[in-house]
Write a structure and sequence with these properties.
single chain; 2-enoyl-CoA Hydratase, Chain A, domain 1; Rossmann fold; N-(1-d-carboxylethyl)-l-norvaline Dehydrogenase, domain 2; 7-stranded mixed sheet; binds 1,4-dihydronicotinamide adenine dinucleotide
Length: 711
């Protein structure tokens, strides 16, 4: 028997096993929108009345069980937080809050209905199972996942400024106990199928190629395991297995405050409560309500409704959409073939780019003028793949695809050539001039230059339209963004190819024009230079860094400069000083001349011991924290407005995305342009004028502010 609904397909076989398959129309991803939930509730109401042996949830989509609740719908609840109720004032009526509460309670109601069905329930996880999808799986009695190395499972809600709201906090704690469940939800990390099995989140892994018939056999096997016990006994039997001595101990009233204190302490090391309240709310929820499922569920819904309508969640959801927007830039209907990548220059960047491309499945030849660099590259590859790839055949095939190429043979076969040699125009020109004589005519040329205009490099080429900038950030493996740089001569095909390439190696591409410093370095440099300026005025490095992290930056500017390398900072600043009003600090020049380059020489603004900065200053009472952060951040905002005005990027959203993913700019603030608008353009402009009166021309508002004000 088969019944089709808009989103769900219900099938019942001769063995009385019901299968509920989700297939949300017109999309490649299943999400739990309000429609999907309402439809599911009505199906559940019907099937609970019919005799059945078991119910199986699955998805009809490839590689996606359920990716979560519908984040687009979240935006509809989002209002300014000004008039929102706080946790202690929940009776105060507010439309946004009420709507959010209603939506969360609907989700909870559906999950409770699944949990209370009179027959055993199974979730067959045939792809990504995240957020609300995981909560649905948790409401089932058994979770069985298909073995697929690409599948991710978890509860990443904190990344959107909320925590699980469909009963997930209650059920995860019940299933895994406080430490495992909190570590999963507080970090928002996602797990592989095997990781989820190790943690206890799922019950079994089955081979990817298993046929539906065999899965049904497995279901029967599980049912046999329960030895024909009645439904309520089966649940009890399973829960008793999980509830250990420690589980009960940690739930005791006198132990909880201690555990909550430990969890809070550990979270506070990573984020501040004022910036990211969700993890702290989650700990509170557990501390005060765990064990009392119904009440915890009620509080869970209230907490999520309150969080989801806050500015933090609003901005984090904006960042989520921006990320999606960058991802779609790499999509294309016509896919130009890409198999072989040739990299010229196997140093810090070239080596890392090569390893990343191999890791993503490409064959990569790497040419360098130095044998030692190539030998080191192989060692780096070995360490990386050993760490990342647990299966030997994957490690071996990756090592086989990382090919040192001293003689530059790869030039001939490559579909894409990426140059990452020293930052020198003439040297780069001669690399491409030679490549043009040998490479296939359809091969695309890319440079990783951080500051040289593309037109300067492509001058020597007879087909300058082949050259595009693919600007990676350091460290390549960790930084999600790539700037795709086009000059006036770059062809649409080369640009499109570079955008697609970014997607293929799992990066977010940001299209920018070939102006000095492109977008990210151009905006970051004045901010870093202001930090050096402040340091020169006698403000201790740690106070400058604290002011920036207090604002919401992931790392202080002084520590960042030491990490990037003072030589790199100097080279970018020097290049920018040729075209922008950037003054290169004398101290930076001197230190670089003396070989004081930051972490890599164990000495920069800080001294380093075992790779960690040694903090010396404990006291400073000059400028306030706000004054310091204003000086840092307003240099950044002013440059952001200049870039927008000069059309370095197409629009404000792309600028915000670039600065968030390229520099880590406080995601909870939604990006620099979003912040400027939120604070008020004219007010920000006035602050700049005040700063310029106190500290000079570098704070003069750029003309772009006028266009923003009069827009
Ligand atoms: P690096 O000095 O570590 O590596 C450069 C490599 O190129 C060296 O191994 C050198 O032997 C090799 N090389 C030099 N001339 C060559 C030639 N004619 N033929 C073949 N190999 C040659 O430099 P790094 O840091 O990797 O930078 C490379 C490029 O990436 C530069 O354009 C830099 O501006 C850019 N970049 C650097 C970033 C960083 O954080 N280091 C970030 C983003 C871009």
């Amino acid at each position: 028997m088969k019944t089709s609904y808009t989103n769900w397909l219900v099938e019942k076989d001769n063995e009385q096993i019901i299968t509920l398959s989700l297939d949300k129309p017109d999309t490649t991803t299943n999400v739990l929108s309000q429609n999907v939930l309402i439809e599911l509730q009505s199906i559940l109401d019907d099937i609970r009345k019919v005799p059945a042996k078991a119910l199986i949830f699955q998805s009809k989509k490839d590689n996606c069980f359920i990716a979560g609740a519908d984040v687009k719908e979240f935006s509809s609840f989002l209002n300014s937080s000004d008039n929102l109720p706080n946790q202690s004032d929940l009776k105060k009526s507010d439309t946004a809050y009420d709507q959010a509460l209603h939506a969360v309670q609907l989700g909870q109601h559906v999950m409770n209905s699944i949990e209370n069905l009179p027959f055993p329930t199974f979730a067959l996880l045939n792809g990504h199972c995240l957020g609300g999808g995981m909560e649905l799986a948790l409401a089932c009695d058994y979770r069985i996942a298909l073995d697929n190395s690409k599948t991710r499972l978890g509860l990443p809600e904190v990344k959107l400024g909320i925590h699980p709201g469909f009963g997930g906090t209650v059920r995860t704690n019940r299933l895994l106990g406080v430490f495992k469940s909190m570590s999963l939800m507080l970090s928002g990390r996602t797990l592989s199928v095997r990781g989820a099995m190790r943690l206890g989140l799922i019950d079994e892994i089955i081979s990817k190629n298993i046929k539906n018939k065999y899965f049904k056999k497995l279901v029967n096997l599980w049912l046999d395991k329960a030895k024909g016990q009645t439904r309520s006994k089966l649940k009890y039997f399973k829960q008793q297995q999980k509830r250990s001595f420690y589980y009960n101990l940690f739930e005791m009233d006198f132990v909880r405050p201690l555990i909550a204190y430990m969890l809070t302490k550990s979270v506070s090391k990573k984020v501040q409560k004022t910036h990211y309240p969700a993890p702290f709310e989650l700990i509170n929820l557990w501390q005060f309500h765990a064990g009392n499922d119904d009440f915890m569920m009620k509080k869970e819904a209230e907490s999520v409704a309150s969080l989801i309508t806050s500015d933090t969640a609003q901005n984090l959801i904006r960042v989520f959409h921006l990320q999606d927007r960058l991802k779609t830039l790499s999509h294309s209907k016509k896919d130009k073939p890409l198999e072989h990548i040739h990299i010229i220059g196997g140093g810090v960047m070239g080596g890392d780019i090569a390893i990343e491309c191999v890791y993503r499945g490409f064959t990569v030849t790497v040419h360098d003028q130095s044998h030692e660099v190539l030998a080191r590259l192989i060692q780096r590859g070995h360490r990386f793949f050993k760490h990342k790839l647990k299966e030997n055949h994957l490690y071996q095939s990756s090592m086989d695809r990382l090919i040192p190429d001293f003689k530059n043979y790869g030039l001939k076969k490559a579909d894409l050539i990426i140059e990452a040699i020293i930052e020198d125009t003439k040297a780069k020109q001669s690399v491409f001039k030679y490549a043009e004589q040998i490479a296939k005519p359809e091969c695309i040329f890319a440079t990783n230059t951080s500051s040289i205009p593309l037109d300067d490099i492509s001058q020597v080429l007879s087909s300058p339209e082949r050259l595009v900038g693919i600007h990676f950030f350091n460290p390549v493996a960790r930084m999600p963004l790539i700037e795709v740089v086009s000059s006036k001569l770059t062809s649409t095909a080369a640009r499109q190819f570079a955008l697609q390439f970014a997607g293929k190696i799992g990066k977010l591409p940001l299209p920018v024009t070939s102006t000095p410093g492109f977008l990210v370095n151009r905006i970051l440099t004045p901010y870093l230079l202001e930090a050096i300026e402040l340091y020169g005025e006698g403000i201790p490095a740690e106070f400058i860094d604290k002011a920036a992290t207090h604002f919401g930056m992931p790392m202080g500017p002084i520590q960042l400069a030491d990490k990037v390398g003072l030589d790199i900072c100097l080279s970018v600043a020097t290049n920018l000083s040729k075209s922008q009003s950037v003054r290169v600090p004398e101290k930076l020049i001197q230190w670089v001349e003396n070989g004081r380059l930051g972490i890599k020489t164990h000495k920069g603004f800080y001294d380093y011991k075992n790779g960690k900065p040694v903090y010396k200053a404990s006291h400073y009472d000059g400028l306030s924290r706000a004054q310091i952060s204003n000086r840092l951040m307003f240099r950044l905002f002013n440059e952001a407005v200049a870039c927008l005005d000069e059309k370095v990027v197409e629009n404000e959203d792309l600028l915000d995305a670039g600065i968030i993913f390229g520099t880590g700019f406080a995601p909870f603030l939604g990006g620099p342009m979003h912040y400027i608008k939120h604070k008020g353009i004219e007010e920000m402009d006035h602050t700049l004028i005040d700063l310029s009166k106190d500290y000079g021309r570098r704070f003069n508002p750029v003309i772009g502010w006028d266009s923003l004000i009069y827009k």
